[in-house]
Each structure stands twice: as structure tokens, then as C-alpha cells.
Design a protein that fits this description.
Distance between the termini: 64 Å
Strand order of the largest sheet: 6-7-9-8
Helix content: 25-40%
Radius of gyration: 21 Å
Number of strands: 9
Structural class: alpha+beta
Number of helices: 7
Shape: elongated
Largest sheet: 4 strands, antiparallel
Order of helices and strands: EEEEEHHHHHEEHEEH
Strand content: 15-25%
């Protein structure tokens, strides 16, 4: 075995909207990467044999007693297959993480501004602040995308805890002593659900 290449954060250039492009080291015998971080599919560790020696190593690993313990289930395989088909057919907009990564910063700001207005109508005060969305820790360390955060008025830690305990739970982050929501990280169609959750969390602190 001449080389094993963990493919994590191998950025060769910035592509559309600043999203990194990746290069796969096909001159290596084995390439390993994450199914969720690099492909945008289900959580899975993937090993590819890029040469004859690599393919032989993959077959050997598949016969190892531990292979059964770490083998993914059929649902994960089906989700991984669906994600790969979407990529091969150019349907990147159907992959949630790809859709989030490719939203222009101005569109993110407009969406955040709309949230802020709706929250104000419900008695929840907030302000818009510039920020960065983390693309990923292991897959693209240190790379962020410009975004717009909604900083909620009130005790940051208590607000964040109340949001986590809600139904559905909402994961916020604390920046500069403010509880913040990243408009880039919310799926389409979830806006009203999020606004309802924030209103409930904010009111719970006033009881």
C-alpha cells in the first residue's frame, strides 16, 4: 500500500458563491472521506480504492471481523445512493446542504430582515448583524461563508436554552453576548415554524 489519503478539506479553489471545490487524489491507493460533510448525504465513512492495490485493500477490509460492526444499514445506503444520483444528474439544489451553501449573501440578508420584521410584530425585538456560516470543521476547516445573523434581545444563555427545549428544538449560537440565529442554515418552508419557536421561547422568559 503506497498511500492512504484522508480527503478532508482539500480545497483547490473557490467555486460558485465562494463554495470550495475539492480534488480527489486518484493517484493514491485509498481515499477516505465523510458522506455527510463532503457529499451532503447521510453520515457515513467512505473508503474508495483508486488503484488495484486500493481495491484489494477495500476487499480485505470488507472481510475483517470489525466490518460487520461498522457496516451501515440499508436506509443509509438508500440515502447515500439518492444523494449521489442527485449529484451525477446535476440536481444540486435538491441537496439541502448544497442549497444552503449556494444562497447569495444578499438573499440571506433579505430573508433575515423579513424574520426580524415578523418577530417585531410579535413583540420580539432583534437586530441584524453580519456574520459567517461555518461550512464544516473537518471537511473545510477555517472556511466560512458571509451570512446575516438575527441577534435576539434578551439574556443570551437563557434564550438559547429555551430554544433548545422547545418543540421543535432550535439550535442558536451565542456571539458577542447575544443569542443569534443564522438565516443561511434554515431550510425553505421552515420560516414560520422558526418564528413561532422564537416567540414561544422569548415569552417563556417573561413568565
Amino acid at each position: 500500500m503506497s498511500a492512504l489519503w484522508p480527503l478532508a478539506g482539500v480545497i483547490v479553489e473557490r467555486g460558485t458563491h465562494g463554495v470550495p471545490n475539492f480534488v480527489v487524489g486518484w493517484r493514491r491507493d485509498l481515499v477516505t472521506f465523510s458522506g455527510d460533510k463532503l457529499i451532503g448525504g447521510p453520515q457515513a465513512g467512505i473508503v474508495l480504492g483508486a488503484t488495484e492495490a486500493g481495491a484489494a485493500a477495500v476487499r480485505k477490509m470488507s472481510r475483517h471481523p470489525l466490518a460487520r460492526a461498522v457496516r451501515i444499514d440499508k436506509l443509509t445506503l438508500a440515502a447515500l445512493e439518492a444523494t449521489l444520483k442527485q449529484r451525477l444528474t446535476g440536481r444540486l439544489e435538491d441537496i439541502p446542504v448544497e442549497r444552503m451553501l449556494r444562497v447569495p449573501a444578499e438573499e440571506v440578508r433579505r430573508r433575515a430582515a423579513l424574520w426580524s420584521v415578523k418577530l417585531e410584530d410579535r413583540g420580539v425585538r432583534s437586530r441584524l448583524v453580519p456574520g459567517e456560516s461555518a461550512v464544516g470543521g473537518g471537511s473545510v476547516p477555517g472556511h466560512g461563508l458571509p451570512t446575516t445573523l438575527i441577534a435576539l434581545e434578551g439574556p443570551a444563555s437563557r434564550l438559547a436554552a429555551s430554544l433548545r427545549r422547545g418543540e421543535p428544538p432550535v439550535i442558536a449560537r451565542i456571539e458577542n453576548d447575544a443569542c443569534c440565529l443564522d438565516a443561511r442554515t434554515v431550510l425553505r418552508g421552515e420560516d414560520e415554524t422558526l418564528i413561532d419557536a422564537v416567540e414561544v421561547a422569548a415569552r417563556s422568559l417573561k413568565r
